[in-house]
Amino acid sequence: MTDARPHPLVAVxxxxxxxxxxxxxxxxxxxxxxxxxxxLLPGARLLVLPxxxxxxxxxxxxxxxxEMRALIQHAGGQIIPLSNGTHGTIRFGGLTQxxxxxxxxxxxxxxxxxxPGGPMLIIAFxxxxxxxxxxxxxxxxxxxxxxxxxxALLHDPGDRPRVEWERDGLHAAVAGGARVAAISAHxxxxxxxxxxxxxxxxxxxxNGLTAADWKPVAPAARLLPAPARNGFVLAMxxxxxxxGFDDLIDSLTLLKNAAIPVPHAVIAAVxxxxxxxxxxxxxxxxxxxAGLNATLLTRFDPQLRGxxxxxxxxxVIVPSRAEPFGRVPLEAFAAGAxxxxxxxxxxxxxxxxxxxxxxxxxxxxxxxxxxxISRGLACDPAGRARLRAASRRLAASRYDLEQAVAxxxxxxxxxxxSTGKQGRQASxxxxxxxxxx
Length: 437
Fold this sequence. Notes:
Structural class: alpha/beta
Strand content: 15-25%
Radius of gyration: 22 Å
CATH superfamily of the largest domain: Glycogen Phosphorylase B
Number of strands: 13
Order of helices and strands: EHEHEHEHEHHEHEEHEHEEHEHEHHH
Distance between the termini: 30 Å
Oligomer: single chain
Number of domains: 2
């Protein structure tokens, strides 16, 4: 006998975090899916639409992909890969790739069988899907939430075509009944101010940590260069100018010229490519020309964050010029790393509070950053313990991702989730996965 009851559908559309994790957004997307799976009610269907990466891509990780497939299959979900026109070689790209990904997602959603009367939620993560809403049917359009982790205005303001495409897509989404979720207070203000998204259409889905993120991670000793083993400072992030690595090099040069001792600097300005990018070559030349006591790491490795718990770590430095949220300080807090020295760019100011959870500097101001680094390195053991305790309290009290996802789902899809502590647990055990992602 056919079950004629409506079956709720939750569709999650994403570009990073399924086939691999090359960015903080990827880690956050995975954490969202892991949390969502634990909350889905029996009978609720899960559809995951990731931008496809082929095993031959430098951005692909077989172990990561296997773990994500197992997660979705265990929940009885379906995986349908999307195309962004690159044949699985890259997940992000530019505006041409974004448009292709939106078209692919809209096609899948439009053709996906949905029981009559069954409620639906479409959660589309980040910039590649800001143009999705106009391509959906009116009914699906009203079920959409675009989650904004970044924007072109923050990261590439000179790309005017992308800025206008993002703005037009988000405005069309709101006009048709969709909503936009922000991952931080900074992003909420940015979306309302720079993208003119009406406050009535904004939701909160703050980034944060899961219980798994608090578990100790073994120090990644194999990634630590020999000169750093007796003490090092660490800066890590994508190898792009807005991460502020040039400002960090300038600040380290200022400290060197002032004869202020700094432990070996491990500068992990990383990509997933097998060759150095022009920007990474630029950084390497600058480090060499300044004669800095530093090592440049250029290849992304998931174990990099293990350095946050290394006993030789003297400070974590986050020199960003723009930052929608700032996952590195949060992971440092969970790992017990102290002090954290960061600029006040964007969401970082919500996490790193001067002389409470770390030390702060003005963005794009090497002298200010040098002064903050000097203060951090001068911190005595009692001061480090005070910073460590305050930062862990902040992370635990304000940045619980499971609570954030529960509150978000309770607002947009109460029919699909249980927000109790026990969640759904294994209510989908035995269900088969339908996709081949």
